[in-house]
Amino acid sequence: MLGPVILAASRSDKMRRLVSAAPVTKPVVDRFIPGETVEQVIPIVADLTGKGLEVTLDVVGEDITTREQATAARDAYLELIARLEDLGLGDRAEMSVKLSMFGQSLEGGHELALANVRRVVEAAAAIGTTVTLDAEDHTTLDSMFAIHEELRKDFPRTGCVIQAYLFRTEDDARRLAASGSRVRIVKGAYKEPASVAYQDKTETDKAYVRILKILMEGAGYPMIGSHDPRLIAVAQELARRAGRKMDEYEFQMLYGIRSDEHLRLAAEGHRMRVYTAYGTDWYGYFMRRLAEKPANLLFFVRSMITKN
Predict the structure, then answer these.
(1) CA distances from 219 to 8, 59, 175, 261 (A)
(2) 118 an active-site residue?
(3) Sequential DSSP letters for 48-62
(4) Quick one: pLDDT at residue 223?
(5) pTM above threshold 0.85
(6) Set 31, 58, 74, 134: catalytic member
(7) Distances (CA, A) of 173 to 129, 176, 201, 206
(8) Residue 245: which residues within 8 A CB-CB, separation 6 or more?
(9) Residue 302 catalytic?
(10) pLDDT tens digit string along 199-238?
(11) Among 118, 152, 184, 288, which one carries the catalytic annotation?
(12) How many CB atoms within 10 Å of residue 209?
């Protein structure tokens, strides 16, 4: 299984230097991350929304070690919101945040992350959009869900992410569906032990379907994070059985992956949101994209062979 190996490499400084220095890396990274600055990504947002798509924007970076870095991450999102206000897209352009960027792992990190992300959520609400809290490794989830619950008291449209490969997720889905939350379901892209997560892809897929059924039958707003054609078809069928209209759920896919499918779903009338990451600290995000799907890794390796 290459996935766990790649995920381990995502935390290696030696591998970071090796991959970053490879001549082929930048053009391959550009497939998944269309820019390093807000100035570079805003035209991408305009282009995607002009095609009938929606976006969620992620300023990449997770390895925060100081409060000053956490503040800088918060301010990067506030700058993004100021630029999105000029576009006037409302919730067609939302944001995804990782609480680790806002200081979650530091001393007093729960309160620090809550204070930082609240500023971002407040600013997003002021321009008519919202924020989704990304899921990270299982040790951070109780804090993430507690922050999500606290934010929803004042900003009920704040979303969160659940990961199908974790054993706990079916219970989390029932709780979130009952509360009417906006919930993105993904398979999961962190290296987790067998004590907390399925290690087999088939078992993860089965769990994904069970959880998606819970969300579709619940009171919330499901966001289907998947590129898998089978799961997309299952989601459409579950939505039909649950009596959901097309604006009562949405699909989400990564920028640069199955772009034709983005357009096809939007043309059919589905809400289709493109997860678009940008920033200079792209390494961890890039390595997880390689780990998630063998085709992504093959694309990278093929590019290296072709360029050398």
Answers:
(1) 38, 30, 10, 28
(2) no
(3) HHHTT-EEEEEE---
(4) 98
(5) yes
(6) 134
(7) 23, 5, 20, 15
(8) none
(9) no
(10) 999 999 999 999 999 999 999 999 999 999 999 999 999 9
(11) 184
(12) 15
